[in-house]
Amino acid sequence: MVVHSQKDRRAMKLVSVNTGLPREVKWHGRMVTTGIFKEAVKGRVALRKLNLDGDRQADLTVHGGEYKAVYCYPLAHYDYWKKELPGRELPMGMFGENFTVDDGGKALLGGQGLLEESVHLGDRFSVGTAEVAVTQPRLPCYKLGIRFGSDDMVKRFLASGRTGFYVAVVREGEVGAGDEMKVIAREANGVAVSEITHLYVVKRYGEPEIDAVRRALRVAELPESWKQYFRERLRQAGERN
């Protein structure tokens, strides 16, 4: 872990804090329970190990938990989706995110274009009185399609590379819209969120992918389920891990 000095610290801004409780909706003729419907909340909210106060997930086998306590989605992606989905209302929290974050219109560190390219697994941020660590990108399930009323939204979301990312809560505290998310430490192994998504979807591993997977496996914040997946991919590529 590389700890940054004060002058090196850059920040995202927490534009909106969004929460929601599971609800039943009708989808393709059957009732589905989903927590993807989030709405912006005012004031300060307690951030705990498993979620924000007032927020819950419907299916805890694939959503929520320690490694998915909070889902972050960049504000800049809303502009992209407004062009892709003309005429569509896109209120904060539309993508099911808890934190809508603004990186100031440029990559947080290093000059890349998307926030997913400049935020790395294991990076730590202070936000309000809490501290969080990046754990994984979001892999959308069919419930994103429910939120948008469109089955093809899942495929379009993943193909866009605009996945957002999950964080674990290192220190509980209070958060609110307007808070800065300051980088307080960067993971030395440096695997970007976007790289993890690529490693998940790419059909064949070459040397760059094998090298990236080896680095990812050294990141403590990457959940064991992801590590098992990547170990199996290395095995299939004929590599020892």
How would you portray this structure in words?
With 241 residues, the protein is of the alpha+beta class. The protein is built from seven helices and 13 strands. The strands form three sheets. Strands 2-8-7-11-10-9-13 form a seven-stranded mixed barrel. A hairpin with a 2-residue loop joins strand 3 and strand 4. The protein starts with a strand and ends in a 5-residue tail after the last helix. The model has no long low-confidence stretch (mean pLDDT 89).
Instruction: Give the SSE order as H and E letters.
Output: EEEEEEEHEHEEHHEEEHHH
Distance between the termini: 21 Å
> How much β-strand is present in the residues?
25-35%
Mean pLDDT: 89
Largest sheet report:
7 strands, mixed, barrel
The beta-strand count equals: 13
Bulk shape: globular
What class, by secondary structure content? Answer: alpha+beta
Strand order of the largest sheet: 2-8-7-11-10-9-13
**Structure annotation, total helices:** 7
Task: List the topology elements.
Elements: E1 2-3, E2 11-19, E3 23-27, E4 30-34, E5 39-40, E6 45-47, E7 70-74, H1 76-84, E8 99-102, H2 115-118, E9 124-127, E10 130-137, H3 142-148, H4 153-160, E11 165-171, E12 173-175, E13 180-186, H5 193-201, H6 207-216, H7 224-236
Parallel strand pairs: 7-8
Antiparallel strand pairs: 1-13, 2-5, 2-8, 2-13, 3-4, 6-12, 7-11, 9-10, 9-13, 10-11
